[in-house]
């Protein structure tokens, strides 16, 4: 209960400080990303001192997985904003309410998933197989285009609710000819929530491989998601440099799936420190690989100088 109050208070402060529609710059995004990450890491220290090293290590492992997988959300959010041509000044508002919805979805998924694993051990095999398949999809089918207009949730909204294909100064609802209509910005919000719902299934299944302690899972998830809005504005222009990061994310999903399945065999649960090491090593390795590849691609080819008559 206390954690929910803290999260609500932090969201209220965020909403109060960003209540106007404005373009979020790199400096502002960097400051807020630092604030949210510091808050998440600091909570882990408190949890470590309060409940011990097992809970603390599980929290940090879950936090890292959720934070890393949320980077992939940024790719999709950027595509959705580009597809709907959302003005930069309205994007922060959509992402704020998107984060609120994401927290609600994840709360439901965490408690439902943990209860399933406790009650029916065989669901671990289903979750594990799902994660392995998702990892394969991410590694080898990552370049598929996102088509928001084909999302069944978005199509359902447009079919049920009268929709106005304009942004109307950043409002979600407007009145036209005496009738209420949802604006295009509302449709964008639904697209963001629908895509995050898919990511939530992946990420919750992955962190359930670490622990079924719902408090640890919820706190790690909440602090990772709280900074998603500022993370988007910080990384949206830099993601091209991490072109191999999705391979690292795929490895983590497959690892989580295998770990979940092994937990129900004679092997048992893998040590959490080992899990944390695999997470950190995989993330670092994929980022270094991406940066080295970008640097090699930027170098001129041997003998290319002077081909156009220039030295």
What does this structure look like?
This protein is mainly alpha-helical. It has helices at 2-17, 26-51, 53-83, 88-119, 123-140, 152-160, 184-207, 214-226, 228-235, 245-262, 272-298, and strands spanning 163-164, 173-176, 179-183. Strand 2 and strand 3 (179-183) form a beta hairpin. It is globular. The model has no long low-confidence stretch (mean pLDDT 76).
Concise synopsis of the structure shown:
The protein is mainly alpha-helical and 311 residues long.
Please count the helical segments. 11
Give the overall form. Answer: globular
Our estimate of the beta-strand percent is: under 5%
Helix content: over 70%
Segments where pLDDT lies below 50 for 5+ residues?
Answer: none
Q: By helix and strand content, what is the structural category?
A: mainly alpha
Outline the biggest β-sheet: 3 strands, mixed
Beta strand count: 3
| Mean pLDDT over the full residue set | 76
The N- and C-terminal alpha carbons lie at a distance of 69 Å
Order of helices and strands: HHHHHHEEEHHHHH
Radius of gyration: 21 Å
Main sheet strand line-up: 1-3-2
In terms of topology, how is this protein built?
Elements: H1 2-17, H2 26-51, H3 53-83, H4 88-119, H5 123-140, H6 152-160, E1 163-164, E2 173-176, E3 179-183, H7 184-207, H8 214-226, H9 228-235, H10 245-262, H11 272-298
Parallel strand pairs: 1-3
Antiparallel strand pairs: 2-3
Helix pairs in contact: 2-3, 2-8, 2-9, 3-7, 3-8, 3-9, 3-11, 4-7, 4-8, 4-9, 5-10, 6-7, 7-10, 10-11
